[in-house]
Amino acid sequence: MSRLYESMFRSVLYPAYESGLMRRGTLRYLREYEDNQWLSADEILAMQWRKLEALLDYCWEHVPYYRGRWRELGIERGDIRCMEDYASLPVLGKDEIRAHADDFLPRRPAQAILFKATSGSTGEPLRVGFTRESYERRIAVMYRGYGWSGGHHGRRTLYLWGQPAGGMGWKERMYQAAFQRRTLNAFTMTTERMPEYADAFDRFQPRVVVSYVAPIVRMARWLLDQGRVPHRPEVILSAAEALHEGERAVVEQAFGCPVQNTYGCREFMLIAAECPHRGGLHVNADHLVVELAGGNGGAADLVVTDLHNYGMPLLRYANGDMARPGGGSCACGRGLPKIASVEGRKLDVLQSADGRQVFGEHIVYAFLGTSGVDQWQVVQDAPDAWDVYLVPGSGFGQESIDRIASALRPACGEGTALRFHVREAIALTPAGKRRPTINNIAAGGTG
Ligand SMILES: [Zn+2]
Fold first, then answer.
1. What is the pLDDT of residues 303-313, one digit of tens each?
2. DSSP state, residue 186
3. CB-CB contact of 250 with 272 (8 Å)
4. Cα–ligand 1 centroid distance for 242 (angstroms)
5. Cα of 289 to ligand 1 centre, how many Å?
6. Fewest CB atoms less than 10 Å from the CB: which of 294, 309, 349, 443?
7. Confidence bin at 421 (pLDDT 50/70/90)
């Protein structure tokens, strides 16, 4: 593309695109959501129910999967009268959607349906449909949530984020130039290349940083090790998974600014975000239904419904992440409910050589209080062996490995080989999430 065109694009074409396509929808929705957040908790629940009723009605009328499934379950139209009724409907998993993909699409959609693929742990992507309206609303909800911590749209923002192989297309590059955004690829960041990343960070001088948790923690540890003081942004927004308090402290120390956690997934974009009062993440309950299923007060499966996606309605979709309930009302005055914390990826169940199922929590327990290890992951590719990947921290040594081996032994039994591998980093999923346990031999991973 010629330089002239680039500059014209930046000054004329893209802003026109944004004010034409984006502003009309996104900015109107943003105003709507900005107003919603100050309603009382009860008013928000009432609004959520009205939106859900409309969506359920639409599913009865137009979406073959639900009509068929509900008839099988003996549910008649009008039977779902309140949120408790809704919560008794079956949870939807990726396998079910894959098996009946076309039946989730409305027979005569009112709007065009766009598609995107989500990653699966089994490597088999899931195609989810959505309408332009639902996409614009998702962007609006994201702007609102980032804005709570000062990450307003249009501020000079650096993304430490995953990029698909082949990099960005020209539209994306132009968009970034026009809107003062820059992306550093989190997936190609290594310790060797860290000075390059830190230099790019300092050169760009972002006011806002948006990053997956793991790479920003890694960069922060490196900066502290080097004694290097980076450019100081106003806020760092961590995304996609759990942010442990120890990690928050490390990043805040390294960059000298607050770190605010947000949580989302590819299927729905932003689901919840911290406001400056913290004490949990506000859920976008005026846009989604977010349920915590099972768990008995502890970490539970996240079950999500997008109230505005009429392109491929997913009712009670389990996205494979877990969260803890709680939080109560917030001093900021927003009526949006809270979840206490996001626990991240649901853990895969592993197997021992003697045929027992070993729950992921059991493995997590074995690593508790282990010093000298920054990150870990246990992967099963064969029935009689576990591969344990470790990222060494300060004080790491053979002793750390011995301690972990003896802590894991009761879980895996005598017959299971434990193979230790020391790595510089643990690979993230394409959506930027960490997976502590991975079982590659069991059917139906958790995605
Ligand atoms: Zn708040």
1. 999 999 999 99
2. G
3. no
4. 18
5. 18
6. 443
7. very high
